Amino acid sequence: MPKREQELKLMVTKETYEKLLAYADPEKPLLQQTNYYFDTPDFYMGKNGVMLRVREENGTWILCAKIKQKSQSSAISAIELETEISPDMFVKGRGKPEILVNLLPPEGQEAIYRLITPSELVLRGTLHNERRILHIIDDYTFELDRTFFPNGQEEYELEIEGMKDEAACQRVMQMLTKMGYSYSVNQKSKYQRLQEAIVQELK
After folding, report:
1. SS3 assignment, position 43
2. Rg value, the chain, Cα
3. What is the pLDDT of residues 98-134, one digit of tens each?
4. Is 35 helix (H, G, I), strand (E, B) or coil?
5. pLDDT > 70? residue 203
6. Cα–Cα distance measured from residue 116 to residue 45, given in angstroms and rounded to the nearest whole number
7. 174: helix, coil or strand?
8. 20 Cβ partners below 8 Å, 6+ apart?
9. Which of 67, 12, 24, 38 is nearest to 184 (CA)?
10. d(CA 46, CA 32)
């Protein structure tokens, strides 16, 4: 089933990241994620709001197409279509990404076919991410990320899921400010930031 995701993304400093670790849910394990992104050589899909990713998370492989939606708030809105695949299927799809496209739910396939021919796809980049689930407010899911980019850069990010509107975003941000945490609102996905890092390295 398609999932509509509305999440507020906040970039934080390393110091703030380390302070937020105090809220890590002791019952939730650290998630080790490796994200493999597929696109055309010129990032045509990503530039047009469609992402194709395989995520290996603590031994589970998840194929995902994410379709960005227009948002009237600070939150990023997207339709997320996921399906679990086997490690062997990932190995096959890594060299022939059209195999992965054909495993997606119909809506994900249609979004990709509207933009490109799947045979144009290649593996464009890989990110490793450490994710912890925080327990701060019961109404929302807080995910604290430490992301390692191929150029050696590290970024720290707090993602809050379940944002219904701008008022909800403002309430959460005001709460974090009152708690003494500084942050900056981020409208770029990890994949967009990876694209920028790859393009910068090519200059």
Report:
1. coil
2. 17
3. 999 999 999 999 999 999 999 999 999 999 999 999 9
4. strand
5. no
6. 8
7. helix
8. 12, 134, 144, 158, 181
9. 12
10. 24
Q: What is the DSSP-derived secondary structure letter of residue 26?
A: T
- Strand-pair partners of 81: 65
Q: Is 23 exposed, middle or buried (0-12, 13-18, 19+ CB in 10 A)?
A: middle
Q: Between the CA of residue 60 and those of 4, 35, 43, 63, what are the distances in Å? A: 22, 12, 26, 10
The pTM assigned to this predicted structure is 0.93
Domain boundaries, the chain: 3-202
Task: DSSP for 31-69, please give it.
Answer: EEEEEEEEE-TT-HHHHTTEEEEEEEETTEEEEEEEEEE
Which residues does residue 6 pair with via DSSP β-bridges, in sequence order? 77
Opening angle at CA 6, ends 154 and 43, nearest 5: 55
The answer to whether 14 and 89 have CB atoms below 8 angstroms apart is no
CATH for 3-202, options being 2.60.40.1910, 2.40.320.10, 3.50.30.40, 3.40.50.12370: 2.40.320.10
* pLDDT confidence of residue 105: 93
Q: Which two tokens stand for residue 77?
A: 């809105």
